[in-house]
Request: fold
Amino acid sequence: MISSDILRGYNDIIVLGLLIQQDSYGYNLMQEIAVRSGHTYQMKETTLYSVLTRLEKNGLVTSYSGNETMGRKRTYFHITPEGTAYYQEKCAEWMETKQLIDRFTLPNLLPPPTHGASSVEYPAEVFRRADEKH
Amino acid sequence: MSKVTEYIDNLFYLMPRTDAAAEMRQKLIESSEDKYETLLSWGRSEEEALGIVVGEFGSMEEICEELGINPMGSGTSLNPAQEMHLEYAELGRKFAIGLSVGIIFCILGLLGCIFFSEVFWSDMLAVTSLFLLGGVGAVIIVYSALAYGRNKRLLQMGIPLHQLKQPGGKHWTKKAEEIACSLIMLGATALFFLLGVFGGAWHPAWVLFPLGGILCGVVSIILEAIGRSN
Reply:
């Protein structure tokens, strides 16, 4: 389970990444996050709504109320063009961050993998550099 | 009202009643109820479902941070005891300043009295100086002592002073009234001495005091009316 502290800065990307596909409401977003993360990340209610409130305040999303079949009032969220631009920017930033951190996380320094785990493919170059040091 | 709504209502109990907070409460209730009913439809018992909703709810600190508000009673980063301590120190300082200013006025009055009677040989000016400056000094001393006593008692009862000061904007008419009245009475006293000393008209001049009182009453009625119409 990933600590929510580390994900703090990325909650915006997660929410916008879902809204960019279609408008959605609170509970649906939380479920979607749980499913997509393979149930490794459960965004807290308060986290989701503080993210949404902040995004709305900055004009990156808008909200409107729609009626579901049950007749219950639901607040839907919609991504604005500014939100899309921001999302793309954040994605590019994440790619850079990922590349940087990858250079410091060497697979042969990890604890031995448990059975059947780790199907992740690391570039050969990563192993070569680590070997040179030994 | 369902248990989920009740739970969230309890969390918002200590929040300031702002529009943003009300909106946030509504949204949180909306999605928590969604989750609760989905869990029930999956065959969970009410207790289990509520347990899951509460467990995955998160912390109100995040909400407070986002709304830029504090739960009532927690003002700043200082804890209440530290805050009281600072306020107490500030109170002592104000009292000391008030007392010294008052004493300085009294001494000035006395000095003026000696000066006028020795240099100008004018008993009238001497008396005026003694009463006017001495009077102002006495008013300052009495006022700061009363304020000190009252605020100290409040602090001892555990009531922070800054909470009382917050709605200060509402009572500007009250303050204006106090200032106007003290100015009127001070003016009446000054005129009384001037007329008495220079005109020798002590007898009809005393009328100024009841007149001043009536004027004070008129001013306070007018200001009160203004305050109420706002």
User: Anything to note?
Assistant: Chain A has a mean pLDDT of 81. The longest strand of chain A covers residues 61-67.
